[in-house]
Amino acid sequence: MHYTFDEWMKRKYPLVPFERYADDTICHCRTKEEAEFLKTAIKERMEQCKLSLNEAKTKIVYCKDDDRRGSHELEKFDFLGFTFMARRSKNRWGKFFINFSPAISMKAKKKISKEIRSWNLQERSDKSLLDLANMFNPRLQGYINYYSKFYKSAMYPLFQRLNERLAHWVSRKFKRCRRHKTRAIRWLGSMYKQNPTLFAHWKFGITPPMV
Predict the structure, then answer these.
(1) 146: Cβ–Cβ under 8 A, 6 or more apart, which residues?
(2) Dihedral of alpha carbons 135, 138, 143, 149, sign
(3) Fewest C-beta atoms under 10 Å: which of 81, 126, 134, 183?
């Protein structure tokens, strides 16, 4: 793809910025007409090199924000685990505006949720809370490092549900907390107060409820 696409783009369309990772590419066009022309040109280039575009994934997307207030059939796209779309943001002076920006995609959130469920925390009553932190913090920290670079609040529901699963673990581990959800949450909150950086997502700011 370096010769087939990258060098060809630099040579033929030097004024069109682009990013590519493996076979996923974003090209930044100034008008819809330019985008349609480039899409056709890229398709022809791929065919010349005995390749083909994935028609289902090759789309023209309108990047809507405060400076681009029109509308289009497609106004968002996914790239490298992020969904890029119009979002309400706040500038350094505290003023809200609409910005076309990335946040963790729904597909990525579903994948992470599935992995967290696969940990079967409710079945690990033989482990201590410290054991669980040591087992899963590397994965949690990896997710935080990657996905929190943009619009980190989109990750909050994921980790709130993880706290709920930890509370379920508490209720399974300690007899006095069985069938007492509030008591389990209170115990988890007391552990947070003792060691607020025990779990990567606690350190990130998604803490157990203080009851």
Answers:
(1) 81
(2) positive
(3) 126
